[in-house]
Amino acid sequence: MLGKVNHIAIAVPDLAAATAVYRDTLGAKVSEAQALPEHGVTVVFVELPNTKVELLEPLGEASTIAAFLEKAPAGGMHHICYEVDDILAARDRLVAGGARVLGDGNPRIGAHGKPVLFLHPKDFLGTLVELEQV
Amino acid sequence: MLGKVNHIAIAVPDLAAATAVYRDTLGAKVSEAQALPEHGVTVVFVELPNTKVELLEPLGEASTIAAFLEKAPAGGMHHICYEVDDILAARDRLVAGGARVLGDGNPRIGAHGKPVLFLHPKDFLGTLVELEQV
Q1: Which residues pair with B54 in a beta bridge?
Q2: Residues of A at the B interface, defined by Cβ within 8 angstroms
Q3: Which residues on B lie below 8 Å from A94 (Cβ)?
Q4: Is pLDDT of A61 > 90?
Q5: What residue segments make up the domains of chain B, in order of their start?
Q6: Would you call B132 a catalytic residue per the annotation?
């Protein structure tokens, strides 16, 4: 069922500083910052040869990233996103197996304009898992 | 400088249960478990089309994974490993830029039989970063 790792997301308190770490210190290719108010984040994409790292800074009051950073003020790995061919089939299989989907259980349009779901970390080894239909 | 994401490591308290989550619930291809006593872990590789997830269970008394799990008993994302062409050149560039390398600063042979270094999470957005020469 699982396809590629679409991205690994890292929550950061200061996006400009985090971008400099990846661009200047680690020598990676990074995108311009993009504000995504409907997702409560500003994001910079770090483009690696086989996948992406996404640096997420909170945007707005209700950002889930802000809550994460209260517990980990320096930042940290926030979630991992796997690609799936059919997100509804994936959801139905997971729910039938007892896994919990966050929110109302229906896909919403994610930061890349494609349908996504988030799975409960307690069912996936303490790791927040995003599924994205590609 | 940064090449591919070689793997994303997830620390888990129960490797058999974690393997079942990835194999049965998520439908991914997983390896047999491999004990790596010199690294203080037993590992299962989850093979995705573009990279790997490594499930790490503590092995032995001095495992750094055990310390991680004391703070996150359900498990969690432990580190991200990036490939580099020349680990000594990478190390020298990072140290010159003020970043801290864990241990004595010299590469050791990692779980894949190749030279690796770990970088201090405080210098990399709260994320433990492994570099592996490939």
Answers
A1: B9, B45
A2: 1-5, 8, 10, 12, 18, 21-22, 24-28, 48-51, 53, 55, 72, 74-77, 80, 82, 93-94, 97, 99, 121-127
A3: 25-26
A4: no
A5: 5-133
A6: no
Confidence (pLDDT) at A63: 87
Q: How far apart are CA A112 and CA A120, in angstroms?
A: 21
Which bin fits B57, alpha (ψ -120 to 50), beta or left (φ > 0)? beta
What is the per-residue pLDDT across B11-59, written as a single tens digit (0 to 9) for each?
999 999 999 999 999 999 999 999 999 899 999 999 999 999 999 999 9
Q: Please list, in sequence order, all residues whose beta carbon lies within 8 angstroms of the beta carbon of residue B72, skipping any fewer than 6 positions away.
A: A126, B11
By CA distance, what is A99's nearest residue in B?
Answer: B25
Instruction: Fold for B5-133, please state it.
Output: 2,3-Dihydroxybiphenyl 1,2-Dioxygenase; domain 1 (3.10.180)
Q: Cα separations (Å) of B69 from A42, A50, A78, B18, B65?
A: 31, 29, 17, 14, 6
How many other CB atoms sit within 10 Å of the CB of residue A102?
A: 14
The interface pTM score, or ipTM, of the predicted complex is: 0.95
| Amino acid identity, position A40 | G
Strands A129-133 and B115-119, by their bridges, are unpaired
